Amino acid sequence: MKKIFSIIAIAMVIAACGTTATTSQKSEPVKEVTNNPETYAGTITAADLKTALYTYASDDFQGRETGQPGQKLAINFLKEHYIKYGVKAAKSDGDYFQTVPLDLVSAPDVSISINGTSFKYPEDLVSVMTSKSEKISVEEIVYAGFGIEDQNVSSYADIDVKDKIVLIKSGEPKNDDGTYVVSGTSEASKWSNMRQQFTAKRVLALEKGAKAIFFYYPEIYQMVVGRFGNPSGSMSLSGNTEESYFFVINDGIAKALVSDIDTDHTPQVIKTDIALDYKNNSEQITSENVAAFIKGSEKPDEIIVISAHLDHEGVKDGEIYNGADDDGSGTVAVLEIAEAFAKAVNDGNRPKRSILFLNVTGEEKGLLGSRYYTDMDPIFPLENTIANLNIDMIGRTDPERKSENRNYVYLIGSDKLSTELHNISEEVNKKHMNVELDYTYNDENDPNQFYYRSDHYNFAKNNIPVIFYFNGTHKDYHKPSDTPDKIEYDLLENRARLVFYTAWELANRENRIVADKAVTK
Fold first, then answer.
1. What is the pLDDT of residue 382?
2. Exposed, middle or buried: residue 481 (CB in 10 Å: 0-12, 13-18, 19+)?
């Protein structure tokens, strides 16, 4: 699972709603529609998962870093297993690999002067997007205050920002009594949310025509410097170079432009001479998603996607980051689930709907492989994709979890777009597995923001119902010590079987699930 504050996470905004589990909408009763699925769930075993994972998370795979030799070994391992199980390639040309073109990002060369005073990168400003090389010279900028637009307040009502540099700041206005202007209550809106305001304010400024954005956010400036100041090894999708520019700035630049910016919220045009020189230092590389497919018998055009990310952190300072839990556990679970469905097909019990087994690359670099699939080159139309079951870290237990029941899994997102999907998940578990379904991290206000941090999010933002299966973090998360000997294989078996049963029900029930909470775009 990727760390928080990736480029992609900052650049995207949630398109779904809802926070807690609900059972307000009735769904079809869970029922057997072909042969007993327990026959096939039983083929998903701790022993087989352990055998696969001890190879997949071994030192031979060199930590499976995106675009590196270990990742190439990983994709061939997956391909060989799909061939062995008789699960065909998803692509019509028979190729299991979907090429994902990437840019290996290096810190840009940025120089900037304001009224003759030079400022330094990254001490004074940091680029959080990958933009094209360009020189910009202006004699005025537009200060848009909080940079928001709502029915109760607009920072852009009386100003024109087309092709201008726009200065905005974090937060949102309050009334004299301390309530927020946008909500009219003591509850803040998305314009103050640490993650959401990055996207909301950037997108709004770009919609207004801004050429470049200076975002003053002093509370997290050092955090942003740590993440983006020297982005060694970070990546972005090729062809995704921005025409605009988005910088987080420190108080030196902010107050050189608006001396009382902390207290002055008034939008205004400011006469100032700025010379900005931005040089992109990216290098093109390629990586691959692996996509295997079982065609449905009755509704083959309706697709269920079962996903896990195949990459990890690679080798750092001579130490191999094996990524047994993150996400070797999810990867081998997908393989075992694919084998179980393949055995059902061989027995004449082909699922009614099609199943896409999608192992995505570049998750640790910002959900890149899944975003390439959903946003650039979906093998199957997204409108025909009924659900995504995403598995990312299901082989361990969370040491911070208060319950003593180790037979649990965290579920995230199951109710955010489809009440029916949530109900099906609950019913399937009760009928077949009795795993404790823990919704601790399903809250939109979860400070970890796990909902945004794995590959299901790229499906969810396209209004495709999702479930994210997760065991929580632990002391070995993103460490060389995340090794296969620490996996709790009985739990890995239980969780993989739960995903299989859920997929089986979704694939074989009469009616397609309804995304009753989908957001109109």
1. 98
2. middle
